[in-house]
Amino acid sequence: MATNMANTRIQRELAEVARASDSEKGIVSLEALDGRLDHLLGVIMGPPGSPYDGGTFKLDIHIPVEYPFKPPIIKFATKVWHPNVSSASGAICLDILKTNWAAAMTLRTVMISIQALLGSPVADDPQDAIVAGQFKSQRSLFDQTARYWAHIHAGAPTSVAVMDQKVAQMVQMGFRESDVQDNLSWNGWDVEKALEKLAPG
Amino acid sequence: MDDDYYDFYDDDGDEENLPDMFDHKRDAESSAEEDPEHFHCVAVSEEEVFQITNAAVANVSQHTGLSLDDAKSLLICNKWDSDGILKIFIPTSPDPDETHFTSSGEANFPRECAVCLETFPSALMVANAQCGHEFCRDCWNYYLGAQVEEGKGYDIQCMETKCAAILGEEFVIGLLSNSAMKEKFRLRFFRDCIESHMNFALCATHGCGRVFFAEHPDNKRVSCDKCKAEFCFACGSDYHLPCDCRTIRHWWRKIAEDANTASYMAAHTKDCPSCERSIEKNGGCNHMVCRICKHEFCWICMGDWKQHGKSYYECNRYKAAKEGTADPAAGSGEPPLPVPKESEARIALNKYLFYFTRWKGHEESLALEQKLFTQIQERVQTKIQHQQGTLIDWQYLTDAGKLLLKCRHALQYTYAFAYYVEDGPKRMLFEHLQADLESTIENLSFSIERAETVDVAGLQAQMRSAEFRRKALFKDAKMLALPAPS
What we know:
Chain A is of the alpha+beta class. Chain A has seven helices and four strands, in the order H-E-E-E-E-H-H-H-H-H-H. The longest helix of chain A has 19 residues, at 2-20. The model of chain A has no long low-confidence stretch (mean pLDDT 88). Among the domains of chain B are: 105-197, 2-Layer Sandwich (Herpes Virus-1), CATH 3.30.40.10; 262-316 and 346-479, Four Helix Bundle (Hemerythrin (Met), subunit A) (Up-down Bundle), CATH 1.20.120. Chain B is 47% helix and 8% strand. The interface between A and B is medium-sized, with 18 and 18 residues.
């Protein structure tokens, strides 16, 4: 019965999002993967005015059999630099995905909440300690890194020139680009420290 | 708070129906009430629990206009503080413009359930009266079943987004379709009622289910008449006076964490301080007599017993700095050797081990004396069967055994207590009283173990002395406010 209810509801939710996307064009989309109703792909746009503006962020959504009585399991499939999202795994720290889930919530309302979370991080309830620390103490470096990640991972139009240069400099040394991007970000764009992590000793 | 139910009975004017559990034996117990360990509580049936809780529910419902169901949930959330609820509750007259979907005007429209997103005729939709949110019967049933399965009781929330409404008992039972689930929920809800109500305590034994009522709840001893367990009325853990609930939790956590460090202390054998033969302790009494050399010593401090009995007994007194020993090099012309200072951690460990050894020692004695008590009872039975006196003749021996257990338990917990008492004259006094009880108890234990050869009057004098000292110790402990454990 539960599986049936989850399936019927997901079908209706997909229709709901498809209907609503006319008025909210470009903000939210939702589709079933391989025709399966328990694994979905959600897409949200970075909120205007935030470092994520112009980026397209994919969400990996798993529907438990007990849905909607248990919350959907959602993480970012696109890499995001954000205090409440793990920069390594994409896991999201959001109350409505855990204890504050209510059966009457829908995937559309949850995706809107995640989009809102991108626009207003909650640094006191961090998922990623490094990012949250930077958000609190080096706000401009955080904004630049977030924008840089939105550019390289989520296709946002503007990059950050200084960061491009540092990455290029280290890629020339023979390191893989994605490793360089990660390690520079995790070490506050300190080339020396990033080098130490990439080539210890 | 304590007087809640009296008020309701007063209101209803049927005081004669007040359960007469508190009145009888009043006079007989007035002397017992001087005992600082005295505590009056009674086992109550489910009906008696409902009698008390329902009166409070009816009162709150009447004054607030809430349904009985909602009033009960509200009381559980507020630990049955009726006065507190009525003080802050502002009654609101229903707003005529704010109508729920359930109002008769729209009753027949088919509506969508926000959970399964299907459309139902109104008859299949059920609204929670408190918040007005309605969903289809199937969704409610499935949701509530899952919540009950998770062990939830009074704290099940409405399914609506950001709705903080808590679902009432009857509402939930009415929507659950599975009778086993209904029963599980009913039991859980009953437990919630008991646990949130400071005048009730549930027996600490898992599955026993006995409920106790106390007019004046306190952190004192409850003895379950059904399963024979003993526990603290206030916190449900092992009875722990003179320690308060917080202190004893801290102590238990500490001894659990330090179990490895202290495990060697719990060894069952020690060497006789005189002939160094290994001795196994086989009774609860700490007054040891070596079988080989007849040396008498104290199991706890390993000191000569003569110094315990005749002169000043101070095996219970922790000496923070064991300095003051005469410098052996003095007078020999050589410069005195620097005495290595003990590190703070070492001092703390020594202090802890001092109290822990004594705590553990009394705990082991208690276990052995519980066996002794069983043996005494068997012995008394045998004697009666062999026409050697009646039950009344041997009553003093049973009483002595009971008293010994009571005092031993008290002594054990005074060591947890003393660990937290700050240094100073008050602590000196406490330890003096503790030492008094300890030496009396060791004598009593010694006599009971050899009860056949001890004269009755002597044993009874020891018992009176022990009882007097136990009361004195608890009275003193009551006046010593412990600092909050860090």
